[in-house]
Amino acid sequence: MKSKAHIKTHPLHPILISFPVAFLSGTLLFDLLAVVTGNMSLWQAGSYLELAGMISAVVAAVPGIIDFKYTVPPDSSAKKRAARHGLMNSAMLIVFLAAYILRNNESADLSILALEAVGTALLVTAGWMGGTLVHRNHIGVYNRYANGGKWKEARLNVSDGLIEAAEESELKKDQMKLLLVGDKRIVLGRSENGYVAFDDRCSHKGGSLADGTMICGTVQCPWHGSQFSTETGEVKAGPASQKINTYPTTQMGGKIYVRFPEP
Ligand code: FES
C-alpha cells in the first residue's frame, strides 16, 4: 500500500531506520569490545553511537507513525502488528535511554552492557515485525498491476445518501479508486459492465482491496489472494469465507455516484 510519508513513492520509514539499527547495534558492539579490551576510547565511542541511535530512532519514528495512522488498513491484522511494532520500539528506546543515563564514562560496566543487549533484542524483534509489515502486508509497497493506473484516493462527503465519487473519465477499465467517507472505506472500480463499488476491507484479515488487483469483474486481495466478485461481493476464492459489501452506483451528468447505505 502506497506510503503517506514518501519521496516519489519511496517510503521514508524503511530508509531512516537504517540509522538507528546501525548506531544502536554498534553501541552494543563497541561497549562489548571496551569491556573485553579495557579500552575506554571504545566505551566513549559507544556512548556517542548510543546518543546518535536514539536521536535517529525518534526521527525515523515520525514517518512510521504517519504510516501507522494513515497507510496501514484499519481493523486489520497489519494494524495490530504495526501497533506491537511501535510499542516494542518504544520499549527499546526506553531501555537504551536508561543505559545512556546510567553509564559512567570512567569505567566500562557489565550492567550497562546487559541493558544494551536487552535493547538490541527488542530492536531486532521489532525490526522483524517491520519486515513482515513490508514484505507480507505490503505496507509502503506501491503495488500497481498492468493497466491498474496510479493510486487514486479521495476523502468525500455524503449528500442525500449519494457520494459524488469520480468524473466519468477518471477511471479506465479495471482501475480502482479508494473513497474515504467518514470512517468508511469504499472502493470504486470500473469493470467491463460499468462501475462497481465495494468495501475496501477483505473479509479474511482486513487487507485493502483497493491495493489489490481488479480484472474481469473480480478483485483479488494482495495479502493472501482471496478473490471476490465486484458486483455481488461473493467469495470466488479463499482463504476468505465471507462476502464483502457492495454498493449501487449511478451515472449522472458525467459523474459517478455511489449510493451510501442509510445509517
Ligand atoms: S487479508 Fe487474507 S486474503 Fe485478504
From TrEMBL:
Regions that span the bilayer: 12-36, 48-66, 86-102, 114-134
GO molecular function terms listed in the Swiss-Prot or TrEMBL record: 2 iron, 2 sulfur cluster binding; metal ion binding
Matching SUPFAM superfamilies: ISP domain
Domain Rieske per the UniProt entry, residue ranges: 163-258
UniProt keyword annotations, A-Z: 2Fe-2S, Iron, Iron-sulfur, Membrane, Metal-binding, Transmembrane, Transmembrane helix
Cofactor(s) demanded: [2Fe-2S] cluster
Listed InterPro entries: DUF2231_TM, Rieske_2Fe-2S, Rieske_2Fe-2S_sf
Family matches, as PANTHER family: FERREDOXIN-RELATED (PTHR21496), RIESKE DOMAIN-CONTAINING PROTEIN (PTHR21496:SF0)
Protein family (similarity comment): Belongs to the bacterial ring-hydroxylating dioxygenase ferredoxin component family.
Name the record gives this protein: Rieske 2Fe-2S domain-containing protein
